[in-house]
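quick one before i forget lol
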Amino acid sequence: MKRIFFIFRSFGAKIAVLFILAMFFAGLVSNFLIYEYTLRSEMDQLRSRLMVIAQMIAGTIDTKTLLEIPLNEKGIDSPQYKKIEKELMKIRDVAPSLAYIYILQKTGKECIFKFMIDLRASNYPAKNVPARPGEEYECSRFPELMRAFNGPTADKELLKDKWGVFLSGYAPIRDEQGNAVAVLGIDTTASDVHDMQKEVRKRAILVLLFGIILSILIGSFVSGMITRPINKLVEGTRHISAGELDYRVKIASRDEIKELADSFNRMAQKLLAARRELLNYFYRVVQSLIRSLEAKDPYTSGHSDRVAKYSEKIARKLGIDEKRIQVLKEAALLHDIGKVGIQDALLHKNTVLSDEERGELRKHPLIGEDILKPVSTDKEILSIIRHHHERYDGTGYPDKLKGGQIDIMAAIVSVADAYDAMMSHRSYMKSFNKEEAIDQLRSNAGTQFNPEVVDIFIKILEEEK
């Protein structure tokens, strides 16, 4: 017995025991922080995307036509119903993950709404028939739906039924005075998120058990060598729990601690891949919405795709690396996403804009940045979208940057955007031919545009000619 107490009087033994206990609690805490934070973060990002999508769809609804729908059984056959249903079907077709799109209106009864539009996914069973206009709906189970008249929101938990796993987002539909007259709801399939949650929790338990066993096995043998690796693992935990899923732990050893670090990195890599997959899904949905919005105006159809192609050619000539070129193409495709927050009447106006209207239109870079900020992890994409209307002489918007203050990627999109606009016929302006557009670029180099970017682009256009 005395011998046992003597052993635990040694510094190494104390460190070994403390290491075992510390690893147990660190593993427990780190698993909770990493996995629970990640699950909640992924859910919050999905909710944010649903709110953005619901708000964008709500902004496309013709409120006057909506309010003219007869709220009775025959309303489903009315031309007003058919018109709005047709527009919503277009959106549903380019975003197949949207299982339901519906519009509800208050009835005056507590927790009771009535349907105005109810659009189901085309692959749902025939017996799952849509509700007819005027049909009442009890919504006490969905508190976020009742709050949606105040602004965009989304359910906080997944809903599971016999048709699958869903998450719902809502946004108010406002009249010309800005009053909320109805709520648009969308249900998106969330089976992947649900499966990911189960898998992540399973991995959390396995990693925790692995960490406990590993700490017991190696604690007695490497007590004098663990301080530095453990500090690195703890630092990695802090980065991952803060959302930095691309952070990796580097340990120069060949023991079990190194294996634990590798497991940690593999776990972080899988979490990063899952988040990128969700972000890619969101970008695809947003790009589909952009194309559907462009399709409404023949003058802007394909504009974002052409700007992305021009930008890629310029970037390659400038010697920008491939990774940043992909970022540039993605930003170019999304550069006008903020226009979904601008009234259609202003976007399609065929006369000269007033100063007030021009100021309203110039908000679209900021709106675009706000739309993508909750979900985009690439700050350069946000910067390009915010600054693609800055001018080289400092008179652009929204931040009046000048010269070298403007990121070269934003300067590239600015030139490509302007060239495609000049080459596109508008109802209020005749398009330029190629030579006229090149002359405009050359004459505005150094004032509106970065002269280096203009020179490169003109060489590209002349080579193509």
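fyi Residues 62-189 form a domain with the Beta-Lactamase fold (CATH 3.30.450.20).
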